[in-house]
Write a structure and sequence with these properties.
Elements lengths: L5 E3 L3 H4 L2 H10 L6 E6 L2 E6 L6 H11 L7 E4 L4 E4 L4 E3 L3 E5 L9 E3 L3 E7 L5 H15 L2 E6 L4 E6 L8 E6 L4 E3 L5 E3 L5 H12 L12
Parallel strand pairs: 5-8, 9-10
Antiparallel strand pairs: 1-3, 2-3, 4-7, 5-6, 7-9, 10-11, 11-12, 13-14
Length: 216
C-alpha cells in the first residue's frame, strides 16, 4: 500500500453485480489505516485521512453534534455507505447519519440514511472528492461539506436533485459559513486554519501524496 489510491482488479465473472462487488469489499483484508471504496465500478483502496487532519475532523464533529437531526449521529468511524442506483460505495471522512441504519448485521449502510457527508481533500483524493463524490452525493445527501485543504476553503453544497446539488457556497478558512437545514447553524472554520497550513507545509517539503487520483 502507498499514499496514493490503488485500483484493485477483480475478474469480471467474480465481480458480477453491484452487490457482488460490495461482498468482495467486505471480504477484503484491507491493511490497517486504509479503506476500500467502490468508485466508477471499480474497487479503490486508499489511506484514511492524514494524522494532521484529525484536529479538523474533531472540530467539525463537535460543532455538528448539537445540530444533527433527531436520531442522527455525527461520527468519523470508517463505515461504507452504499449508493446502489449509482453502483458506488463511499466511506466519508465524516458522516452524519440515522443511527437506525447501523442496526443491521452487514458492514455497509444505506446512503439514504445520510443527512451530511464531509470530505477533506488531499492531492491524492481531490479528483474523486470534487467529481465522483460530488456528483453522487448531490443526488441523495442533503448536505455535503468539502474542505479543500490546499486552497484553505470550505465548500458547502445542499439541495440535492436528480442533476446534483442546486446550491453552493464557499468561504476561506477563518470565516463563518452557514450549514443549511436540517442543521441550520453558523460553522466556525477558524479551527481549520492550522491544518491548512500544515497541509501546505507538507506539500512544500515533498511529503504529500503526489499528484491526483489515478483515472479509475
Amino acid at each position: 500500500m502507498t499514499e496514493r489510491p490503488t485500483v484493485i482488479d477483480v475478474d469480471a465473472p467474480a465481480a458480477g453485480s453491484f452487490e457482488d462487488m460490495l461482498r468482495i469489499v467486505e471480504e477484503m483484508d484491507t491493511p490497517a489505516g486504509y479503506k476500500a471504496e467502490l468508485i466508477r465500478g471499480k474497487i479503490v483502496v486508499s489511506p484514511w485521512s492524514k494524522l494532521r487532519y484529525k484536529r479538523v475532523m474533531k472540530a467539525l464533529r463537535l460543532q455538528l453534534e448539537p445540530h444533527v437531526p433527531e436520531g442522527h449521529d455525527a461520527d468519523v468511524a470508517p463505515f461504507l455507505f452504499r449508493f446502489p442506483g449509482f453502483e458506488r460505495g463511499f466511506g466519508p471522512d465524516l458522516h452524519v447519519a440515522d443511527e437506525a441504519a447501523f442496526d443491521d448485521e452487514g458492514r455497509h449502510a444505506d446512503a439514504t440514511a445520510l443527512s451530511l457527508a464531509a470530505e477533506l481533500t488531499s492531492d491524492s483524493t481531490k479528483d474523486v472528492d470534487w467529481l465522483d463524490k460530488l456528483d453522487t452525493y448531490g443526488r441523495i445527501v442533503p448536505v455535503y461539506l468539502l474542505l479543500d485543504m490546499k486552497m484553505q476553503e470550505i465548500n458547502v453544497f445542499w439541495d440535492p436533485s436528480p442533476k446534483g446539488y442546486r446550491s453552493r457556497t464557499n468561504v476561506p478558512f477563518g470565516r463563518p459559513v452557514r450549514v443549511p437545514a436540517p442543521f441550520d447553524f453558523e460553522l466556525d472554520t477558524s479551527a481549520f486554519i492550522i491544518e491548512a497550513k500544515a497541509e501546505a507545509q507538507g506539500t512544500a517539503d515533498g511529503n504529500d501524496s503526489g499528484p491526483g487520483t489515478p483515472d479509475v
